[in-house]
Amino acid sequence: MKLFKKLLFPLLAVMFLFAACSKDKNDGPSSTSHKVIFKAIGSSDVQISTAVYGYDTELTTASALSGTSWTSPEITVPAGALMAQAVISATGTNVNSSLKVEVWVDGVKKDEASSTGTALSAHGTARLK
Q1: Residue 49 is part of a domain; what is its CATH number?
Q2: 67 is in which domain, residue-wise?
């Protein structure tokens, strides 16, 4: 029993040492630039009116839009940016009207958000890392 107690403490100390020194996950900003596109798709009775899109605090507003769909120009988000986001506003004719927003980063859909009703607003975000 004494031998067990003498071995237990050093063994636990070594286990904690290895656990504490394991590689941390990188949650920091992106180290490379990204190509980002935002898309809005409404049902047939939806009129898209405004889009605010961009990354971090670099935002662009597109107003006086019309139609049931909208796609942003491709933007190059520089290395170090944290978040790409878009907020799209639209109106529908009834409670079943729907609006969907997609965020595409480097050709991969990273987020999708939707809204239903007559006053529609959908917010899509993608973390860049």
Answers
A1: 2.60.40
A2: 34-127
Q: Which residues contact 95 (CB under 8 A, 6 or more apart)?
A: 116, 117, 118
| Paired tokens of 82 | 């944290």
Q: Record the pTM.
A: 0.77
Residue 27 within any structural domain of the chain: no
Give pLDDT tens digits along the chain (129 positions). Answer: 555 556 555 554 555 545 544 454 555 566 899 999 999 999 999 999 999 999 999 999 999 999 999 999 999 999 999 999 999 999 999 999 999 999 999 999 999 999 999 999 999 999 998
- How many domains, in total, are found in the chain? 1
Neighbouring-strand partners of residue 42: 99
* DSSP SS3 for 17: helix
DSSP string over 29-46: --SS-EEEEEEEEE-TT-
Helix (H) or strand (E) holding 78: none
DSSP H or E stretch at residue 72: none
Residue 5 counted as domain residue:
no
The answer to the question of residue 10 being in a domain is no
